[in-house]
Amino acid sequence: WESPLLRQVQAYVGHFRQSTLNETDLVEDMVKLVKRTQFTPDMLDDNAFTFGYNVNEDGTPAIGEGVDDDPTIVGISTPCVVEMLRYAAEYVLHIDTTYKLDQSGYPVLVLGISDQSRSFHLVAMFVTSQQTGGLISMALQSVFDVFKVITGNYPDIRYCVADTDKAQYNTVMDTTSSKRSRGSNGALTYLMCFSTPPRTWLTAYPVIQWK
């Protein structure tokens, strides 16, 4: 028995990534993939879906070209994971952006809930071409709208930890005030964390609040 050549392994891995994992950097392929996985109210709890983008008149997704005047945004989640927003009234909503998770170098906006045991529960991820207030607003509004379709009401957000960027602060405050739970009582407290290492953040938790 002989070990396969490196080029054979690379060819197999490349084929697997394209055929099974749907890896592609072509807009046409992404549109087909996103259209095939659009959110519907009758989806099973563990079915992954895409959302957050505009839709053309013919129903095809308009995910954008990734440029300033036509940015790209695609959200990814499941109905069960989105329902984690139920706990936002008791715990803390986190909004953060990470990089180098995709081959195009696009920022990935991550939304999740952390509980009192310091566990992080993902709500949704958004692949975006830029990190702007407008795209963050689209992401928040879309995930809140999906939550309402699933549960019948908007989430009640009491605490939010995010970046110190003023535009992001305004976006979060505007979106949470316009899409609030009917039973919501009390204003959102916006917290900002300056410690980047997770271990330091979990133990120190230094925060300030915009006034």
Structure report:
The protein has helices spanning 6-19, 27-36, 79-82, 133-151, 166-178, 198-204; strands spanning 49-51, 54-55, 61-62, 73-77, 92-98, 108-114, 120-128, 159-162, 189-193, 207-209. With 211 residues, the protein is an alpha+beta fold. It folds into two domains: 1-26, no CATH class; 37-209, no CATH class. An eight-stranded mixed beta sheet has the order 1-4-7-6-5-8-9-10. Strands 2-3 form a two-stranded antiparallel sheet. Helix 5 (166-178) links the parallel strand 8 and strand 9 (189-193). The radius of gyration is 19 Å and the shape is globular.
Keywords:
single chain; 211 residues; alpha+beta; 2 domains; eight-stranded mixed sheet; two-stranded antiparallel ribbon; 6 helices; 32% helix; globular
